Amino acid sequence: MGEDRADATASFLTPKRPADLTALDPFPNSDNGSLNGGYWPLADAFLKVFIHGNDPAFYTRSLITFTSGGTGPITGYHIVVPAVEVARIKTAARLGIGHFPENAAKLIKLNRKFLIWHNFSDQVLTPYMSVNYYKQLAKLSGGYAKLQNTVRLFGLPGSGHCSGSGDVKDAANWSCPQEDTSMLKIGESGRQAGVIE
Known about the structure:
- By secondary structure, this protein is of the alpha+beta class.
- The chain is 26% helix and 10% strand.
């Protein structure tokens, strides 16, 4: 892991070691759709916009240190982020609904309709994140039957990150049979990915 790879078509690859570890943008042009920069563009944009207020003078690279070797599955290089920055990110991220099911309680109490969808072939964000989120919402809301009055989770088979087609306003493009509980079944890959039982 961490070394250069010839097969750039596979998902979830560890990006190759940056050519210049001191550059302000260590993964140049990584936002052009290639996997050469891994998730750098996603993390970089999140930190710049949501954590550092879109400050044009802020560079994510100024926060991190690259180190080589070490123990664990990544042996080519490691990226170290100061604990104070991690705490800042966690504090700022908690302000929205985000990944914290308890933050959705207000919305659920308003008796509004909340549709969650996730692409099953998403190469950036595993669909198990949404499955776990929905399971936690159900636990906090008194079970699936009660939760489904306001919140539904839709999985889109065969669609990648930020893809899918059709008019979202056309009901014919959505389906959620009441008796269908197939998304709640956990297979071996789900267990390995940490899906909540």
